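Need residues for this backbone.
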């Protein structure tokens, strides 16, 4: 039995041999092309898709390349039967006999039926092997994902096509405070702050209908202690990926970072205000202090500002008044 190789030489790869003629087949080069190596019973059966009978090996020119070796091993007739997988010929079964014209109609019918059963079994084995390889690949992929999720610093979620949380990585606990089992089955949008929900629905709504795309979102999310934390999210639509079949959302809690940024901004604003008030004092010739500006700002009358700044122009007095209002802000 041999399989047809889809190479340039159109070779036939021998995969099994049994019986007394097996030794005579060792080392034989067989093909299924139009050349002399493809003219034998196996090659012709593969090429034409039909059973081929060689009744007399000594006189049949089709066996010329192998005649001497065949006769040395007592082969006097041969039969080639194509092996089919659905509508494709994948190889051929070669049967050899030690007498001329050994394959009559009845024998050919039985052997062709055997070849059909053999082809069916080969197809079943191939499909089983492919299924086992696919299952092994899925297991490897799942293991890689599990290791990645367990060692990631961000929390990872997978939402199904209805928006429900179908998977939660262990990092959900340090990021949101919830153990993973408390989040499974919940609607992802239920965790978003009501004021931020419209933006989240817009961003992820577009993501759900755009396979292969990615979106970013930052908003307030419910934490396990009842407070709201600022969470940065990156969502990817992998609904079409057979290994994921969902929306993957990676999250990290940036509440502390945002608080630091806000505090820094407020500190810089206070510094700028202080510098402006110092400039006001210098403009008043050193006699104008921050407390004076604040008290004059509360009176907010031209006469009071003229008393504080007797030698200033009206434009400078107007500027001082606006500075006084700014100075009334808490330092």
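Answer:
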């Amino acid at each position: 039995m041999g399989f047809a190789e889809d190479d340039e030489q159109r070779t036939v790869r021998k995969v099994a041999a049994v019986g007394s003629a097996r030794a005579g087949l060792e080392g034989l080069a067989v093909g299924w092309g139009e050349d002399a190596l493809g003219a034998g019973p196996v090659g012709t059966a593969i090429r034409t898709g039909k059973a081929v009978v060689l009744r007399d090996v000594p006189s049949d020119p089709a066996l010329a390349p192998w005649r001497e070796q065949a006769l040395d091993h007592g082969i006097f007739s041969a039969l080639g039967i194509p092996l089919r997988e659905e509508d494709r010929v994948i190889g051929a079964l070669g049967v050899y006999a030690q007498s001329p014209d050994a394959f009559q109609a009845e024998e050919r019918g039985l052997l062709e039926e055997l070849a059909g059963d053999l082809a069916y079994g080969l197809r079943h084995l191939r499909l089983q092997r492919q299924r086992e390889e696919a299952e092994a690949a899925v297991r490897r992929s799942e293991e890689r994902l599990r290791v990645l999720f367990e060692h990631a610093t961000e929390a990872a979620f997978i939402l199904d096509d209805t928006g429900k949380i179908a998977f939660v990585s262990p990092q959900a606990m340090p990021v949101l405070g919830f153990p993973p089992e408390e989040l499974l089955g919940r609607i992802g949008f239920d965790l978003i702050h009501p004021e931020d929900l419209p933006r989240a629905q817009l961003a992820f709504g577009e993501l759900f209908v755009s396979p292969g795309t990615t979106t970013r979102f930052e908003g307030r999310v419910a934490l396990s202690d009842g407070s709201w934390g600022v969470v940065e999210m990156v969502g990817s639509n992998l609904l079409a990926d057979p290994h994921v079949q969902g929306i993957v959302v990676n999250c990290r809690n940036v509440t502390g970072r945002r608080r630091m940024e806000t505090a820094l901004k407020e500190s810089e604003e206070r510094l700028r205000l202080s510098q402006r008030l110092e400039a006001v004092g210098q403009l008043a010739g050193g006699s104008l202090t921050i407390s004076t500006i604040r008290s004059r700002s509360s009176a907010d009358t031209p006469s009071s500002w003229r008393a504080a700044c007797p030698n200033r122009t009206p434009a400078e007095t107007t500027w001082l008044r606006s500075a006084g209002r700014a100075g009334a802000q808490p330092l």
